[in-house]
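Q&A log
Question type: sequence-to-structure
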Amino acid sequence: MKVFAVSDLHLSGLMNKPMDVFGPSWEGHFQKIKDDWEKKVSDEDIVLIGGDTSWGMYLEEGVFDLKSLAPLKGQKVFIRGNHDFWWNAISHVRASAPDDTFHFLQNDCIKLGKYVIAGSRGWTCPASPDFTEHDMALYLREGERFKLAFKEVQKVKKEGDTLIALIHYPPFGAKLEDTVFTRLFEENGVNTVVFGHLHGAGYFPLRCEKNGITYYLTSCDKLHFTLTEIQ
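Response status: OK
Response body:
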């Protein structure tokens, strides 16, 4: 069993929002992702999708885009991104899953084999250049949501399991500052963190280490529209 990750697919099957307006590299981006996925992933593997899956505004629009992932192999684990407006009540999202290979995390976790995956959206951090005083309450609230996720982890994690945290927003700034998220990851024994959200931030490394935890930036354009293997 291998674990792959990619984020920010920005699919728009029912929306008139072609991604190539953001540059020629985005032309046919989903086909590039699918081609790479089909080469790498087996039925036994896991693929983490770190938010901003669909431009859809309503559940049926998001589900339309999810269905385009259904033919692809592997267990697919999702969190919500800042653009996933189609993702409303988590019970409705889970009830609309195309099949049983789709898993949606919201302040909780799932165990697949030896991997325990905890996830929540996160929020922009104080070290981010666009952080304002209005972000503080949401930033702290997302920290509380990760506390809920880690309470669920305690119920299922066994000795020898690998704990992965899936978060949409980067959990620190460019200098890898301590944040409420990094402290929670360290306190709860997280091994690997996967995040996305960033597109043009060339100063962010795709992989880095902080206090014994490996962090992966997996925005699809940063990965040249491929999946990255994290475990």
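Response note: Residues 136-156 form the longest helix (21 residues).
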